[in-house]
Design goal:
alpha/beta; TIM Barrel; eight-stranded parallel β-barrel
């Protein structure tokens, strides 16, 4: 099972606390820190990257320059197939998807993050949660392994795997993992 941590956007508030929240047991850490300058973001990517597979949120240029493991593309971003033409071999590409059409348009991605499966815990999201039945339907036709995102907890993560997800992603899930929340 793939464990995929997404950072919470607070590195600019308290970098030490932010760094302490990185779960080194996660398979991937997606750095999503839109408030940072390019220089500060690159510094953090390099700092976290030691021994951790870091994906940079929607910044292909920075991911390549900082030798990150890959990039996470937001929904509606450049097509993964085009990204493949400019990145080094082995560079990972994940894509945010919100429905079956998004997933089918993610050809060339290594993984798709499908959200929200459940009602998100860490942010407001006006989209209706997909639920486990829809997750199962989408995973069966996806061109890439699906990672479930949105409202993931220790108690429902196994249900996502049973529905066909290759793993689970989240912000709150990794922050609270092992605390019983």
């Amino acid at each position: 099972m793939i464990r995929y941590q997404i950072t919470d956007g607070t590195a600019h508030i308290n970098e030490d606390r932010w760094l302490a929240a990185i779960n080194r047991e996660a398979d991937f850490v997606q750095i999503r820190e839109g408030h940072l300058t390019t220089r500060d973001l690159c510094r953090l990517v390099r700092k976290v990257g030691s021994g951790t597979r870091v994906l940079v949120n929607d910044r292909i240029d920075l991911a390549i320059a900082c030798q990150a493991a890959g990039v996470h593309l937001r929904s509606g971003s450049i097509a993964p197939e085009l990204v493949r033409t400019i990145v080094p071999r082995g560079f990972l590409i994940t894509v945010a998807c919100h429905d079956a059409e998004d997933v089918q348009n993610a050809a060339g991605a290594d993984y798709v993050l499908l959200a929200p499966v459940f009602k998100p815990i860490s942010k407001q999201d006006g989209r209706e949660p997909l639920g486990l039945t829809r997750l199962a339907e989408i995973t069966r036709t996806s061109p890439a392994p699906v990672i479930a995102l949105g409202g993931i907890t220790e108690s429902n993560m196994g249900l996502c795997i049973e529905a066909g997800a290759a793993g689970a992603a989240g912000i709150t899930f990794f922050r609270d993992f092992g605390t019983g929340k």
